[in-house]
Automatic annotation (TrEMBL):
Belongs to the phosphofructokinase type A (PFKA) family. PPi-dependent PFK group II subfamily. Clade 'B2' sub-subfamily. HAMAP family: Phosphofructokinase_II_B2. It comes from Coprococcus eutactus. Catalyzes the phosphorylation of D-fructose 6-phosphate, the first committing step of glycolysis. Uses inorganic phosphate (PPi) as phosphoryl donor instead of ATP like common ATP-dependent phosphofructokinases (ATP-PFKs), which renders the reaction reversible, and can thus function both in glycolysis and gluconeogenesis. Consistently, PPi-PFK can replace the enzymes of both the forward (ATP-PFK) and reverse (fructose-bisphosphatase (FBPase)) reactions. Residues 5-323 form the Phosphofructokinase domain. It catalyses: beta-D-fructose 6-phosphate + diphosphate = beta-D-fructose 1,6-bisphosphate + phosphate + H(+). This is Pyrophosphate--fructose 6-phosphate 1-phosphotransferase. Substrate binds at residues 143-145, 189-191, 246. Diphosphate binds at residue 12. Homodimer. The active site is at residue 145. The gene is pfp. It is an enzyme of class 2 (transferase). The keyword Transferase applies.
Length: 409
């Protein structure tokens, strides 16, 4: 009797993706449908390589779930950037995967990830249907980019947004101490969608208007206007703090990045140097102190400043995925539907994964100001609830205690 399941993680890490893993383990523990849960090391690649660890013992103890695993950064099971081919062209990987499912008596496969991971869920679901397999394939969302369609927001985004806003506020404090006029450019992750950069607006308070300017990839970037925007802010402020997405581009679609953008296996441009490019631009055009700061991977691994809302939602999405599979659902992803902003309320619903795979949700243009250098109050209202709440970590010798990842080393 097939009553086991496999869970895997893929794509870029977040500080909430392990909370979804914990949710899956907890869901299996409470389920009358599944017996054992195996973790595939390094995503779908781990299934192909027969690289598993048995997570069933973890399900027997509540401690590692709520106090360690769900609050550990990055991915406990590791990740991959493996793109499944079209099975009509090359079915060999699929044959290996479903042979593996048979070997481990798998009734359900859970894949936690973003756009590309949902592509894997979609392809596996369609192949299962083609061969008549009864294995349930369910996706669980994650990405700090917040660009998955058909869900109000994605796990990992709220914590990353909290980190970005907190860091922006701290950068502002550091900048304000000097009387010297200056420009500080903060580069934030976001290739095609500027949600995370937009979250920098949450740093603003009664005494600090920083970031003074926000530039997103949803609209074209104009270098001349950028310089004029800075000069306009300097008329009333000694310093200018700028938040900019790594993926901003000109009207012809060319990235502003200082280096040529290469593509990954999924065809996505790998960007770096946007902040440095703008720093050079300001140096060339203006006689003012300027520096750039690239937040880089810190945005996705700063578990010490996780959003409790984010962690709770991520855990619940993992639990829901197990419930869907137990009820016989397949080819779906668990999603968040917002009921209200104030008070913040949400529910979880399944959605057809084929509507999500390879799609991207960008910021509504009406949430970007006509000047293309800021966001509207509607954006702030959407963002604010997602960063609420703090986590309580255990510490040893002054440092957070995270779940060891010896199996990845």
């Amino acid at each position: 009797m097939k009553d086991n399941c496999i869970v895997a993680q893929s794509g870029g890490p977040t500080v909430a993706i392990n909370a979804s893993l914990a949710g899956v383990i907890d869901g299996v523990k409470k389920s009358n449908k599944f017996t054992r849960v195996y973790g595939a090391i390094h995503g779908i690649q781990g299934v192909l390589d027969n690289n598993f660890i048995d997570l069933s013992l973890m399900a027997l103890s509540k401690f590692p779930l709520v106090n360690t695993l769900e609050l550990s950064p990055a991915m406990y099971l590791g990740s991959c950037r493996y793109k499944l081919p079209d099975f009509e062209v090359d079915s060999k990987p699929y044959e290996i995967i479903f042979d593996r499912f048979e070997e481990y008596q798998v009734a359900a496969f859970f894949y936690i990830g973003g756009n590309d991971s949902m592509d894997t869920v979609d392809k596996l679901s369609k192949y299962a249907k083609k061969i008549g397999s009864d294995v349930k394939i369910v996706g669980i969302p994650k990405t700090i980019d917040n660009d998955l369609c058909h869900t109000d927001h994605t796990p990992g985004f709220g914590s990353a947004a909290k980190y970005v806003a907190s860091t922006m506020l701290e950068i502002a404090h550091d900048t304000y101490i000097y009387q010297i006029p200056s420009v500080v450019i903060v580069e934030i992750m976001g290739r095609d969608a500027g949600w995370l950069t937009a979250a920098s607006c949450l740093a603003r308070n009664d005494y600090s208007p920083a970031p003074h300017l926000i530039y997103l990839p949803e609209v074209d970037f104009d270098e001349d206007q950028f310089i004029e925007d800075i000069k306009n802010v300097l008329k009333t402020s000694r310093c200018v703090i700028v938040a900019v997405s790594e993926g901003i581009h000109d009207k012809d679609g060319n990235y502003i990045s200082a280096t040529s953008a290469v593509a990954d296996k999924f065809g996505h441009a790998q960007l770096s140097g946007t902040g440095k490019a703008l720093e050079s631009l300001v140096k060339d055009r203006m006689d003012i102190k300027v520096r750039s700061i690239e937040l880089n991977v810190l945005q996705r691994c700063a578990a010490h400043i996780s959003s409790r809302t984010d962690i709770n939602e991520s855990f619940a999405l993992g639990q829901a995925a197990v419930k869907y599979a137990a009820e016989g659902m397949t080819a779906v992803m668990s999603t968040i539907k917002r009921v209200s902003n104030d008070p913040y309320q949400w529910i979880i619903e399944p959605e057809n994964v084929s509507l999500i795979a390879n799609q991207a949700k960008t910021i509504p243009l009406e949430w970007i100001t006509p000047e293309k250098n800021d966001v509207t109050p509607e954006m702030e209202a959407y963002l604010r609830p997602l960063i609420i709440g703090e986590v309580s970590l255990q510490y040893k010798d002054g440092l957070p205690m995270y779940l060891p990842v010896n199996h990845l080393l």
